[in-house]
Amino acid sequence: xxxxxxxxxxxxxxxxxxxxxxxxxxxxxxxxxxxxxxxxxxxxxxxxxxxxxxxxxxxxxxxxxxxxxxxxxxxxxxxxxxxxxxxxxxxxxxxxxxxxxxxxxxxxxxxxxxxxxxxxxxxxxxxxxxxxxxxxxxxxxxxxxxxxxxxxxxxxxxxxxxxxxxxxxxxxxxxxxxxxxxxxxxxxxxxxxxxxxxxxxxxxxxxxxxxxxxxxxxxxxxxxxxxxxxxxxxxxxxxxxxxxxxxxxxxxxxxxxxxxxxxxxxxxxxxxxxxxxxxxxxxxxxxxxxxxxxxxxxxxxxxxxxxxxxxxxxxxxxxxxxxxxxxxxxxxxxxxxxxxxxxxxxxxxxxxxxxxxxxxxxxxxxxxxxxxxxxxxxx
Amino acid sequence: xxxxxxxxxxxxxxxxxxxxxxxxxxxxxxxxxxxxxxxxxxxxxxxxxxxxxxxxxxxxxxxxxxxxxxxxxxxxxxxxxxxxxxxxxxxxxxxxxxxxxxxxxxxxxxxxxxxxxxxxxxxxxxxxxxxxxxxxxxxxxxxxxxxxxxxxxxxxxxxxxxxxxxxxxxxxxxxxxxxxxxxxxxxxxxxxxxxxxxxxxxxxxxxxxxxxxxxxxxxxxxxxxxxxxxxxxxxxxxxxxxxxxxxxxxxxxxxxxxxxxxx
Lengths: 379, 263
Prior knowledge:
The complex is a heterodimer of chains A (379) and B (263).
Chain A: H1 34-41, H2 46-72, H3 81-87, H4 93-98, H5 100-105, H6 113-131, H7 138-157, H8 173-199, H9 204-219, H10 222-236, H11 245-270, H12 274-283, H13 287-317, H14 329-336, H15 346-375
Helix pairs in contact in A: 6-7, 8-9, 8-11, 8-13, 8-14, 9-11, 10-11, 11-13, 12-13, 13-15, 14-15
Chain B: H1 3-10, E1 21-32, E2 35-46, E3 50-54, H2 61-68, E4 76-81, E5 84-85, H3 90-99, E6 100-103, H4 115-125, H5 131-144, H6 160-173, E7 178-182, H7 190-205, E8 209-213, H8 217-223, E9 226-231, E10 234-239, H9 241-246, H10 251-262
Parallel strand pairs in B: 3-8, 3-9, 6-7, 7-8
Antiparallel strand pairs in B: 1-2, 1-4, 4-5, 9-10
Helix pairs in contact in B: 4-5, 4-6, 5-6, 6-7
């Protein structure tokens, strides 16, 4: 057609372009761009506009005051509360600074603290191949990761191979939270997977055992289990055996998290279409092969938000060890408040603990989002 | 039970390796709870034979072919595949599944694996083929189904027809002796049915033993050696395609064909 690119429509023609000739035009500014975003998201309707204005007002009231207290008016040096107050009216971070060692290492002997530092470095190295799959020699590296909990246990407790023995009641502060949290996370996932698979099993006894375990764990508060660990377990073990209290707590926390983990993973397993099992079966894959290669990779991927949710809950629950007399970071903070030099600084302590937990949990949550994005294979 | 009658009907014993019968089903029954889904199925398939199974929905045709690789369990009667009897013995089931490929209505590709990984999984884990070799074989079959360029994509990025062709390639990578097709084109848009059927026709030309549950009567006419009509859990009629379509014997077959060919 001679007029194929003529923008004026000729009578009789419905389109200025020949069929199939129409180029892709850029989208109009009303469907993209920052102005469009603000319009639709912040001022889309009267209610939206009012809520946006209210939110802006609240932020205006809160943020400057917070910044003032946190940073501008804060005192970073000083030997007591009085000295802090003499400097400024805001937060007294000198208090936290003077007790930082205690917050981090608890009562771990000072000359041995390099062992804690070393296990943190080793932990970071053990996490790399778990968190990222593009690292070289990942297979061998993962073996190290699997061995890490035992290496760390040896490093922290010692007593063998020339390392001085440090009894576990010296563990405290942030280090205690990390020990319990990492152990719980590392062991609750595999145990939870086994429980979830067991709950779906065709073998009735296995299924009943798994269901009973999960229901029991979910029906009992963690504090109760920790009391049981502290008081009752010693009745069940033969007299004379020294069953370390920390180990008992680790077992209880791990089992508790596994019960929840099992249910999260069961949800993922149920979302896998029957056809996936059938395709795996018809190929001749054995039960564990089809679980490992086909079902679990998909089920775990779906369950990532729930799994990380359980991890975060577990990590925060580590503060509950205070009920059986162990001082984690929160416990150390509370007991520090009794110091007459620093009396009345509870806000600083709780803010410090809250910020610490928030940072750790936020990192976990961000990583889970990264993982979800990476595992998304497109539709 | 009914052993003597069976021997008369099939005329051969499934467990003898020398015979040409690659699948022998004798007096097979199956129930879902109290529901009698398959009633006295007798079917012998020769090596390289191409069989189309048709019938109204709910007639048990899918269930029947799914019994051949034990996706469904039968409760009575015998099934021999490639001379191996299907029993509760897991070893036999594994042996049979290696030799029997299956293509499903909804493709059932593994969405978390690339097309190539879908194809190499079986050979690597079931047949212990080295990875390089398995990949070479997979590429060969992907070329045969005409989508080698999609090898590194994920199934979710392909069209339905392409996915089904990948599913066929995936089964072929296991180098099976028998291929089962469970309504392979029923979930596809009309324009994609042809590409899948063409792939199946090419496969038939290579001499593969095929059992195909389908409503594609054109495919049955051009490819099948034998057409089986099922209704109510029974095999009602079986014949070569020409006499089957030109001169159906049974009333129910006539009714079914008139309905399916009317539009």
